[in-house]
Amino acid sequence: MAKLLLLRAVHSMVAVFVLIVLVFFMARLTGSPADLYLPIGATLEMRDEFNRMHGFDRPIIVQFGDFLLDLLRLDFGMSIRTTRPAMELVLNAIPTTLALAGVTMCFVIGLAILVGSLAAFRPRSVFDRIAGVISIVAASTPDFWVAITAIMVFAVALDWLPTSGLGGPIYWIMPVAVLALRPFGTLVQVVRNSMLSALQAPYTKTARAKGIVEQRVVFVHALRNAMLPVITVAADKAAGMANGAVIVETIFGWPGVGKLMIDSILQRDFAVIQASIFVTACVIFIVNFFVDLAYLALDPRVRSF
């Protein structure tokens, strides 16, 4: 067990390091920040002074070496745009993104387990067919299209919901609904198929033979053993929400790390880009770590590794 967790941790740390190195070099392919922050008629002396102030005047390999040394202290430097520490900006934004992702995943997992279990309980029924159609449509619909359509219908045409920002519960409805759509569609199918296999397994037949009520057979005996593939897919979708949140946060003006990342890319704020990617990758690593712990709790075979 300890060997498995240690191996996963090492792999994750290597992946985070490789990712942050790639981001360092790829961010600089977008061009010089001086082109954005200096006026069009800026002289060569003004550009040289700007690059010197922000450390862009040195060779790229020297900048990379300094970056690695600062990374050991989790110091990503100062934001060009705000002149504040890049890590401070990201840490201020990440709780908002985590709150959006957490609320969305709780909603998705609970609803998907309920719908998928009921669909498996009565396969080929009207409910099963309707749930299948809805889940396929939900899983294949692009986030950005749904977000824009939702704004046009519910915010502009009907004036029921706010278009953007963060406030009371009403501000959460559209971002959560849009972000939940695709994971919900996928998880319903996974829960249904996994539950069908579990309901046909010998242990469920034994439970029925003992006279245990059907609801307990479905939602206790079968569901527990059907959760392993569900956890795998749910973890993948939770990690993938970092990508989905970038789109949703940008469209809805949600002040999270996704919107901060897009704004920083557009404004060539290298320090904030690097800090955003690093923190997001660490969050994904932590999510996967807890998934491994859940596997250990649910599957005794993993504990013997």
Overall mean pLDDT stands at 84
From the helix content, strand content and strand pairing, which structural class follows? mainly alpha
User: How much is the radius of gyration in Å?
Assistant: 24 Å
**Beta-strand residue percentage:** under 5%
C-alpha termini separation: 6 Å
SSE pattern, N- to C-terminal = HHHHHHHHHHHHH
Morphology: elongated
Helices, by number, come to 13
State the CATH class of the domain at 94-274.
Answer: Mainly Alpha
The name of the CATH superfamily of the domain at 94-274 reads MetI-like
Please give the structural blueprint.
Layout lengths: L1 H26 L6 H4 L6 H10 L6 H13 L13 H36 L4 H15 L2 H15 L15 H27 L2 H8 L4 H39 L4 H10 L3 H29 L1 H4 L2
Helix pairs in contact: 1-12, 5-6, 5-8, 5-10, 5-12, 6-8, 7-8, 7-10, 8-10, 9-10, 10-11, 10-12, 11-12
